[in-house]
Write a structure and sequence with these properties.
The protein is mainly α and 284 residues long. The chain has one domain. It is 76% helix and 0% strand. The chain has 11 helices and no strands. The longest helix has 31 residues. 34% of the residues are buried.
Length: 284
């Protein structure tokens, strides 16, 4: 069947925005990592705000086709709420970054989140029901993230069990906030892109899910090439395995939400490892 002009324009805009998202995540991010001094965080702020805006735009643009993008009600709630809350956590931590609330980049994130919610509501968007099966997959995503975190930082968790006094309430609060912070960080940037928009785009090209699973893992790994020089195991083994895991979770659950939870748990556990070292050294 021939494609109508309006459908063709719709698809062209989708692919163009997807291309911009990939540009921001791979060449742009690599450029600011390698060429900007670490204390200059403006480039990162441009990436964060730009990615969030383009993600929100594509969600609105494809609002009648979100199921094919693996974005259900739970994933939508994660995207709308977790990212703005992250700016409040940064303010609580008193971190010096452009994304801390109420800096202008953080305000843009709030405007984008509120704007997406209002735009969907005004368009008559009807969310899907959160079923028991959805909750089961979310629990499974959390479980996989927790198990991977424990395996990744076994000595840290072992220290928590054998020396519980080494972890003060302040340290545990900071650790809990960090895990919550990470749910709104990389997962909100990367899960809609690699396991949502990209997956749907490749399906339009008649790719099979198995090939998409492998390709998105390769592309996801290449986006983390800055780890290759110093963290060989992480780059060549852990990141590809994580990408395949997130892809499998998304494929089986038909939602990026379980992958968001697993991704955030795994990323946040790196901080737990650092906290255990600092706590043991300070005698907390």
């Amino acid at each position: 069947m021939l494609e109508t002009p309006s459908a063709g324009r719709h698809r062209q805009i989708f692919w163009s925005v997807l291309g911009l998202l990939l540009f921001l995540r791979i060449p742009y991010t690599l450029a600011i990592i390698y060429f900007l001094p670490i204390e200059n965080q403006n480039g990162a702020a441009v990436y964060e705000v730009g990615t969030y805006f383009l993600t929100a735009f594509l969600i609105w643009w494809e609002r009648e086709n979100l199921a094919n993008l693996h974005i259900d009600t739970t994933a939508l709630l994660f995207i709308i709420f977790l990212r703005p809350i992250q700016t409040l956590i940064l303010a609580y931590w008193k971190v010096e970054t452009p994304l801390v609330f109420p800096g202008w980049p953080s305000l843009l994130i709030w405007i984008i989140a509120i704007g997406l919610g209002l735009a969907l509501w005004q368009s008559g968007f009807k969310s899907t029901r959160i079923s028991f099966l959805t909750l089961a997959w979310l629990s499974f995503g959390l479980l996989i993230g927790a198990v991977t975190s424990i395996a990744e930082n076994f000595s840290s968790f072992q220290s928590m069990v054998t020396h519980p006094r080494a972890f003060s309430s302040a340290v545990l609060l900071s650790t809990s906030l960090n895990l919550f912070y990470h749910l709104g960080f990389a997962p909100i940037n990367e899960e809609p892109l690699f396991r949502g928009f990209l997956w749907a785009a490749l399906r339009q090209l008649k790719w099979k899910d198995g090939w998409i699973l492998v390709f998105q893992a390769v592309l996801f790994t290449s986006a983390h090439v800055y780890f290759a020089g110093q963290y060989l195991f992480m780059f060549w083994v852990f990141i590809p395995a994580a990408a395949l895991l997130f892809g499998w979770l998304t494929l089986r659950s038909r939602s990026i939400a379980p992958a968001v939870l697993a991704h955030g748990m795994i990323n946040g556990s790196v901080y737990l490892w650092l906290v255990s070292i600092l706590s043991a050294g300070s005698g907390l």
